[in-house]
Amino acid sequence: MSSTVLLMRASLFLTWGGRPWTGRNRPHNMSGRAGIPPPTRVARAHATGKTDPMTETESIAYDVVVLGAGPVGENVADRTRAAGLTTAVVESELVGGECSYWACMPSKALLRPVIAQADARRLPGLAQSVQGPLDTPAVLARRNYFTSNWKDDGQVAWLDGISADLYRGHGRLAGPRTVTVTGPDGTLTTLTARHAVAVATGTRAQLPDLPGLAAVKPWTSREATSAQEAPGRLIVVGGGVVATEMATAWQALGSRVTLLVRGKGLLNRMEPFAGELVAASLAEAGVDVRTGTSVESVTRENGTVVAVTDAGDRIEADEILFATGRVPHTDDIGLGTVGLEPGSWLSADDTLLVEGTDWLYAVGDVNHRALLTHQGKYQARIAGAAIAARAADTPVLDEPWGAHAATADHGAVPQVVFTEPEAAAVGLSLAEAEQAGHRVRAVDVEFSSVAGAGLYADGYQGRARMVVDLDGEILRGVTFVGPGVGELIHSATIAVAGQVPISRLWHAVPSYPTLSEVWLRLLEAYRG
């Protein structure tokens, strides 16, 4: 590797969970699978501590205790430390959480070469150079690099840099404002919070109740994003984001993928055309897409997975991935000690305060408001600011769009699905807007009407929709489907969250010739 590349890699900054990482923080050895966290790190106590002679457990007081050190928990800690509040963070696995090691980062590292190759194959002068298969070992090695080979040294160092104390182990509530941490060696530590405990434990994969499924050792999103080789044959069960992205990735990396979808189509939380275009592309890539299909049984016979569908079809594969939903990671965090149901979603107000409490916050996926890393980080920034305001006894600005209200959760949530083509949306779909009682009109245009799309790739196929509120003449939602649209969605997010009037959007002139000129086509179609 050249000295120039080494220098670029060493100075590379990534923002994972709202904090900077440098290339130097990430190990470069590429061996091994998802690892086990290192031993408990000795935390510094910023507040006075004591030992309980009855239980012989250390008891340490903080202003704030955060359960979970994923991106959401890290952002809560970042905001509370910025406000001068002493903060402890409890983590039983890797600091950085699901997103950094088994979701966002590794999945997108797998998908980026797939999407880049597909784009290149649409460009004369380049297409002939990229007709061969992807270099799967190289793709997997790069994926490993972006997970730091499942080591969290860099993120631990980041926590240390903001003077937040890390406690390795299983954290459980033990009554109001109290958390006990059972370390890897069995040591029990009691943490008390003067102001707040924030639960940011996220979710885990939900598996169906099929007899003998555990013996099959099915893949979940964790195995799908950390596998060190491509299975020859892979069954993917599900039709949502994880299912479609992993079907896209592993088919391109050499697996023969069969996608089994119980519903009528893919990506059913987006506009129908999004799932239709993605399904057509998957089929063109060689994926066997079967909608309206349920799995009745799964066995593993001599190493081969055998799935039997409700239609009686017998499908054999080397691995089977279930991407059939998520459940809250709250079954063993002591919710019963504070009058809440173990294993339940935690209902929270717009300041992320758990209903019925004045000290417990539920932030990120665990509150079921919007199961997306970026939205959880947004909530964490809001929650951290609200905790700080209450601790300082200053006004809490919890009116809609106030500094301490996660208003965007209700109608301005963006999402990108990194399939080929990409699908990106923000706000409400047409069906959701109508169900909410808004008087709306959907406006659709094809990307083929945009000069920038033709330049982007020969035969560019994609569609855009905006859902216009006819009473306020603002946008309730926007959906883009097509190559490269993931980088286009933030403009729509600003329009929706900012409630920018249609009359003002006419003055936001898109640069020519770019994909963003789709905005002009949409506005022209609306005005007629």
UniProtKB/TrEMBL annotation:
Name all Pyridine nucleotide-disulphide oxidoreductase dimerisation domain ranges: 413-519
Keywords attached to this entry: FAD, Flavoprotein, NAD, Nucleotide-binding
| Entry's family note | Belongs to the class-I pyridine nucleotide-disulfide oxidoreductase family.
Q: Name one GO biological process term.
A: 2-oxoglutarate metabolic process
Q: Which organism is it from?
A: Streptomyces fuscichromogenes
> Which residues bind NAD(+) per the record?
238-245, 325
> Where, in this chain's numbering, is FAD bound?
108, 171, 365
Alphabetical list of PANTHER family matching this protein:
DIHYDROLIPOYL DEHYDROGENASE, MITOCHONDRIAL, DISULFIDE OXIDOREDUCTASE
Q: Which residues form the FAD/NAD(P)-binding domain?
A: 62-374
Extract the Pfam families matched here. Pyr_redox_2, Pyr_redox_dim
Q: Give the protein name, as stated in the record.
A: Oxidoreductase
A GO MF label: dihydrolipoyl dehydrogenase (NADH) activity
Gene3D superfamilies this protein is in? 3.30.390.30, FAD/NAD(P)-binding domain (3.50.50.60)
Which coenzymes or cofactors are required? FAD
Q: How are cofactors bound according to the entry's free-text note?
A: Binds 1 FAD per subunit.
**Disulfide bond positions:** 99-104
Q: Which domain of life is it from?
A: Bacteria
